[in-house]
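Changelog note: in this version the structure field was regenerated for every chain. One regenerated record is shown below for reference.
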Amino acid sequence: MELGVLLPTSGPLASPEAITRVAQEAERIGYAAVWTYERLLRPIEKVELPGGGEPQYAPDVYRLTFEPLETLSYVAALTERIRLGTSILVAPLHVPVMLARRFATLDQFSRGRVIAGLGQGWQHHEFETANVSRSRRGARIEEIVAAMRAAWGPDPVEYEGDFYRIAPSEVNPKPVQAHLPVLMAGGAPPAIKRAGRIADGLILIAPSAADVRGMVETFHDSAREAGRDPDHLTVVAQAPVPITHKPIDADRPYLGGAPSQIAEDLANLRGGSVTQVYFAGMGLGADGLEDWVELLGEVHRAAAGAGALAGSTSSAA
């Protein structure tokens, strides 16, 4: 298993200096990937959040969100090895060939370190702003993935679908990676099954070990039904949880708490088809940027000591 971390592209720690610090320190510590996400705007009125329930004001953290691919381009120039992922870009808000070229450009400048994480979106204000219909988002994102892969393939590129068309053309640059990985976000069964049919991996939010197992099982079953080998697919679990110096005794969130508690959760996940866990707490539970960086190092050391990471062995083994 690998570890990743969400860059401080939004929230109280967000700044170019903080992004640089976390990216470079994550690479030094041994994290496998840094991640960004997309948010066009934060509506002033209440909105329906993805989990359902009564409309609420969108989280304060959305007040400032740096653009994901531009941020990763900046980070690419400041790092050497760490992978650069989006979790996620709201794919229907973009023209597929333009999005394909942006990912390919980043892949060129980073020498093949890009992970394209896509989702179908949920906030209707963003769709209105982009002048895109929210209807048939599932079908639309399937076409986006197909059109992007066509654009990354040999010239001449050609694509014909219900939503998008690429006339026979030369589309460049191409990615450095022979197969740039496309991961799709999913929590509900239809999105998870779609990822199993067409994506290179699934991005999920990990509320509990049982929920993760269930989502992975659905993902793998869908892949098999589509004639695909689940062993060739990845699963990235997002953990939007606090990391704290002291253990959390009551109501501890899964994959959250003190480094020793997190390491135990990670060790129990190893071998369960989760490729990477990335921490998306954006400094929750930390006392400023340097404390957050220190905690990331403690988590990595604890996880390695527990035998939870690829290439590591437990001290008790």
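Spot check on this record: The chain has nine helices and eleven strands. The mean pLDDT is 94.
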